[in-house]
Amino acid sequence: LPALPPDRLPGLILDWYDRHRRDLPWRMAPGVPSDPYRVWVSEIMLQQVRVETVRRYYGPFVERWPSVEALAAAPVEEVLRHWSGMGRYARAFNLHAAARLVLERHGGRLPDEEEALRALPGVGPYTAAAVLAIAFGRAATPVDGNFERVFARLFALRDPLPAARGEIRRLAATLTPGERPGDYVQAVMDLGATVCVPRRPRCGDCPWRDACDARALGLQDALPAGTAKGPRPRRHAVAFLARRGGRVLLRRRPPRGLLAGMLDLPATAMRDRAWRRAEALPDAPFDAAWRRVRGTVRHALSNFDVEVAVMAAEADGGIPENGADLWIEPQDAGREALSTLARKLLAHAAAKGRPKAAR
Ligand code: ADE
């Protein structure tokens, strides 16, 4: 097996990082200290979201709210509006609530203790460790999927995920150096994202190639084990497009759960079986001659795919008041806190939904 002593590993990957690090908007130039608030915002945004997506949201967000104080003072609806399209909306709620707590409990300065960080909504072990390492220079180890893959290979850990996770964490933590831990953990993230990729890792470019047990054993394509994904579940829903005088009806979703707090079309629940018309109609916002719009909208949510049928109707009489309801001009939807799914539903209804006579 490779004979490279483990204490050489941090230096090798830091040298590699200094030459190959990705230029990302939340990264400071080498030697420039990071603003803990900005690190925190970036790590919340990056939770299970692609770097390329976060790139588009991060800059405008921290420009609009450059500090804990600014974010805490914002109405949460504004924060959701800026989050619109990035998914996992509960994160935006939590970030906003946490900013208020940081202001109350810590005078607006992000705490540099794991326990105090973990007490903030939306901050779990991964995010706490990332903030400690990147913003505060602590030897903490944020283990995400990239980390798991890199270390499962480096140590040729053959137990399948997720059972191997504890062992991976333990081993990974033994390597995190006291010097430049923030650069080190981001170096491992970059290595996992660009070199030690899930399929066909580019071992020739890897600073750890001479230390990697998986490579020595020819197992780099087989590890980590247990990551093969089954088919994603598919769920079904019916959404209701209500029109009145050129406006459409949107409804704010509850602040917890799926698409938390976002504006959406009124809809049935998402369930495993498709809905029959008579089953769906009790969830319509009012009684009317609801017509099925041709086709369906498919959308990938965090943990499943959903296929949504749309029913449309014109509201003529009075309709029941619902405090979560909002009638908007379709052309104003772009500025509202809509989920990507709601945007797709509006576009679908606009393309397919008009009866011929009304065109
Ligand atoms: N993914 C999560 N945090 C990251 C970071 N700081 N840099 C790159 N990718 C990341």
End-to-end C-alpha gap:
72 Å
The low-confidence runs, each spanning 5 or more residues with pLDDT under 50, are none
The class by helix and strand makeup works out as: alpha+beta
Shape: globular
Radius of gyration computed on alpha carbons:
24 Å
Bound molecules: adenine
Q: How would you sum up the major sheet?
A: 7 strands, mixed
The counted number of beta strands is: 7
Mean pLDDT: 92
Q: Please estimate the helix content.
A: 25-40%
What are the secondary-structure elements, in order, as H or E? Answer: HHHHHHHHHHHHEEEHEEEEH
Distinct helical segment count: 14
Strand content: 5-15%
Write structural notes for this entry.
By secondary structure, the chain is an alpha+beta fold. 40% of the residues lie in helices and 11% in strands. The chain has 14 helices and 7 strands. It has helices at 9-20, 36-46, 51-64, 68-73, 76-83, 90-106, 114-118, 125-136, 145-154, 165-175, 181-194, 213-217, 277-280, 340-352; strands at 234-244, 247-252, 263-264, 291-292, 297-300, 305-314, 325-328. Strands 1, 2, 3, 4, 5, 6 and 7 form a 7-stranded mixed β-sheet that branches. Helix 8 (125-136) packs across helix 11 (181-194), helix 9 crosses helix 10 and helix 9 (145-154) crosses helix 11. Adenine (ADE) is lined by residues 24, 43, 46, 51, 130, 186, 189.
Short description:
By secondary structure, the protein is of the alpha+beta class. Helix content is 40%, strand content 11%.
